[in-house]
Amino acid sequence: MTPAAGSNISIKMLLLRLRTFIALFAVIVFFSLTVPNFLSEANLIIMSKHVALNAFLAIGMTFVIITGGIDLSVGSIVGLAGMVAGALILYGIDLGPIGYTIWFNIPEVILITLVLGVLIGAVNGWLITRLNVAPFIATLGMLYVARGAALLSSNGATFPNLIGKPSLGNTGFPVIGAGTVLGIPLSIWILVVVGLGAAYLAAKTPLGRQIYAVGGNERAAALSGVRVNRVKMFVYMFSGFCAAIVGLIISSQLVASHPATGETFELNAIAAAVLGGTSMSGGRGKIGGTIVGAFVIGVLSDGLVMMGISAFWQMVIKGLVIIAAVVVDQLQRDLQRRAALQQQRA
């Protein structure tokens, strides 16, 4: 391999690795020049809230994709989690035969909703690991099950006015979506905690290394002592947990729950993960890159809305972004193979 050829490959690899940051810089510059007040404080706060919702889902999706799987059910889990939280606040749990209703305070509502998300993720993991159902099929089926359950919970109606009653001790739910700490939305602080925790898990813990090992070569991981099924169960449970967080935040922001909440959210989550460098073939991805990818998708979506672009064209553009991200990922893999072969020949 000549020095010029090696330098050329190195430059291309560097650009490919920085592609998410380059894309983020490009969309910010473009919309700041074309959309008035795009970088205003008020708009930045609104965009950060939107980005946080997608980032939560994308973080969970990243772990799933690293293991070589996919989770299409996260959007439906968002809707079901919101409906469960709304039902608990408005109606509690009615014990009809004894004429008694159990009411929960807001921390208990949050805990129950998060546990629900984890349990749905556990069902996904069980179907995939124990019954050998393909992840695409298992989570596609759960997409319909969870969405149907959300619709059945209210016959398709909305649970409104989720402010609770002081006499029942269940007030304070809107704080999750509307509260701020040091002028920064509470949802952003929650994202920071979840994001840092996920990044630490991926980079610094044995479980994180096992997640990458399973995605890199599942059989080799199993032969080396990795409990593959447990690792897969964890990533789907964590993905469900992240989806439940989003359901809580959206219902809190709206002070209402609607069963259609979260439709197509899974597509944005996949787009953010792939755009952030997570390989669809598994074994590669970073939480930091995923969060930057979520910023790209969020800034792009809000910028297109502010420009007055049709929602139909927005779908087309997002689809093209996903395709471009997968193509670029394949280019990076091809370059890595070429570089490895050239080093062997040298």
Report on the architecture of this protein:
The structure is a single chain. With 346 residues, the chain is mostly helical. It has helices at 3-17, 19-34, 41-66, 74-90, 106-129, 135-152, 175-178, 186-204, 206-216, 218-223, 228-254, 265-275, 287-306, 311-345, and strands spanning 93-95, 100-102, 180-181, 184-185. The strands form two sheets. The chain has a two-stranded antiparallel sheet. The protein has a two-stranded antiparallel ribbon with strand order 3-4. A hairpin with a 4-residue loop joins β1 and β2 (100-102). α2 runs parallel beside α13.
H/E topology pattern:
HHHHEEHHHEEHHHHHHH
Q: Please mark out the parts with pLDDT under 50 across 5 or more consecutive residues, or reply none.
A: none
Helix content: over 70%
Number of strands: 4
Please state the overall shape, judged from the principal axes of the Cα atoms.
globular
- The fraction of residues in strands falls at under 5%
Please tell me how large the radius of gyration is: 22 Å
If you average the pLDDT, what whole number results?
88
Q: How are the strands ordered across the major sheet?
A: 1-2
Distance between the termini: 6 Å
Count of DSSP-assigned helices: 14
What can be said about the biggest beta sheet? 2 strands, antiparallel
* Computed structural class: mainly alpha
Question: Any chance you could write out the topology, listing elements then pairs?
Answer:
Blueprint lengths: L2 H15 L1 H16 L6 H26 L7 H17 L2 E3 L4 E3 L3 H24 L5 H18 L22 H4 L1 E2 L2 E2 H19 L1 H11 L1 H6 L4 H27 L10 H11 L11 H20 L4 H35 L1
Antiparallel strand pairs: 1-2, 3-4
Helix pairs in contact: 1-14, 2-13, 3-8, 3-11, 3-12, 3-13, 4-5, 4-6, 4-11, 5-6, 5-11, 8-9, 9-11, 12-13, 12-14
